[in-house]
């Protein structure tokens, strides 16, 4: 029996989760939400995390009904992400690891998402679409690496959506993406927006600058409503994502798709991916907001895999890093 | 009435043709057209896309594909001949390159130890062909080893290297676009054929030697590579 606690706080969500041999014992989380029209800055985010992290830690242990002595390993997000929030969380992880006398494990955030997705959905060897505010990658496992087949060559799809939400001043509660999704359901007019796929890669900076510039003009001139723009933006960027996922599947001969990351909560994206999968007789796997959105249990799960395959992070190697490629990690727990 | 009849003609023709494969974008058939072995590439409707978006994209890609193939052909680059295009069914009728296999299959079937030997001349040739294409300001947009065909000549004679699948192509003189084109190939190459970094370097060297405008392009390629590393990865 192996019990791992995972600490995650690389962006505006701070979560701590406990996993015991594939079972999620607890997974509390808090989100730093900014007023409409504002994004979240590193120092404010770190401040938010510092204020709540010990409360969340207590909750994690209480909800799991465990004491520190029961934990076998302390996993934390080594990167990628925002500097000061990562430092804040790593500091607490290092401290409790030393206090409790437990080994430490620095985990790659992206791999946390993948391993949680695999655990929850039991997908065998899927093509993974990892989409969030900070990342957009199409990943497939091959020879001990999670190889990146396609990705954004500039900004993440979630970043594009978040920035659009700021432009039209949508609430960030519970998340800008969620509110865009709700508004999109009320939109009906399709407005043509730039569509950019380059091979297996995508580019969102073009559509972002276009829509940032044109949104107000279009809405005030009555050409279309904000709901129509939300609808059109989703249809366009999600089509781009489905397209590069399908290309990767065709290239690898894969019959499974797993969507992970905060944008993966979006039901329209899941619907579109499902249609594509059905046409190819492929299976679609997705999780709900508990696990799509950044959470501690996903770090615990990746940590559980790494720990069981013999990995440990020494204190002097427990630094955090803002940039950490998914394919840098040797996946020692899979063949 | 006549238009309805002609609209039904292509689907009817294709229903009798041999379906070779169903890719992500299009169905590829083998048929005989005007007495010649022909490949028909039919872009079908993608159900997950909004109909207006789908129509715009499909039409644009059909037009771009044909335009780029013709431009390459005029510049002496080996590409299939375009026989016929139908914009209603978004079908392109192309010359079938009989007796060819993809460069991908070629590399995959080579024994691992010889993966970087013997394939070197091939890598050099690919570099040269791409240099010529870029000097023509054609950006392929989807360079992979599956989009390059090798037709073996008689016995040990030099085989002919064809470029295919210009659906994402466009015309551009910008080193940035050419750099991204090579970047797309590099990624596809290294992810499909692990441990072939040296082979790809050979390809780039050959490209640099063959192209008149290569230094700016290689510089852009290096910049684009770093972008993946320097990007803020929050969330």
TrEMBL record, chain A:
So where does substrate get bound?
130-134, 162, 177, 181, 266
Q: Where in the cell is it found?
A: Cytoplasm; Nucleus
Does the keyword Metal-binding feature in the UniProt annotation? Answer: yes
The source's superkingdom equals Eukaryota
Q: Give the required cofactors.
A: a divalent metal cation
Q: Which residues form the Gcp-like domain?
A: 29-300
- EC number(s): the record gives 2.3.1.234
Q: Which residues bind a divalent metal cation?
A: 109, 113, 130, 294
Give any Pfam family that matches. Answer: TsaD
Q: Where are the transmembrane segments?
A: none
InterPro entries per the UniProt record, alphabetical:
ATPase_NBD, Gcp-like_dom, KAE1/TsaD, Kae1_archaea_euk, Peptidase_M22_CS
CDD domains (alphabetical): ASKHA_NBD_OSGEP_like_euk
**How cofactor binds (record note)?**
Binds 1 divalent metal cation per subunit.
Q: What class of enzyme is it?
A: transferase
The catalysed reaction is: L-threonylcarbamoyladenylate + adenosine(37) in tRNA = N(6)-L-threonylcarbamoyladenosine(37) in tRNA + AMP + H(+)
Alphabetic keyword roster? Acyltransferase, Cytoplasm, Metal-binding, Nucleus, Transferase, tRNA processing
Q: Which residues form a coiled coil?
A: none
Entry GO MF terms: metal ion binding; tRNA N(6)-L-threonylcarbamoyladenine synthase activity
Q: Name one GO biological process term.
A: tRNA threonylcarbamoyladenosine modification
UniProt similarity note: Belongs to the KAE1 / TsaD family.
What is the protein's name according to its record? N(6)-L-threonylcarbamoyladenine synthase
**What is the organism field in this record?**
Dissostichus eleginoides
TrEMBL record, chain B:
One matching Pfam family is Kdo
> Looking at the keywords, is Chaperone present?
no
Task: Give the first-level EC class, as a single word.
Answer: transferase
Q: Which InterPro entries match?
A: Bud32 (IPR022495), Kinase-like_dom_sf (IPR011009), Prot_kinase_dom (IPR000719), Tyr_kinase_AS (IPR008266)
Localization of this protein: Nucleus
**Main location group:** nucleus
The domain of life for this entry's organism is: Eukaryota
Protein name per UniProt: non-specific serine/threonine protein kinase
Q: Which organism is it from?
A: Pagothenia borchgrevinki (Bald rockcod)
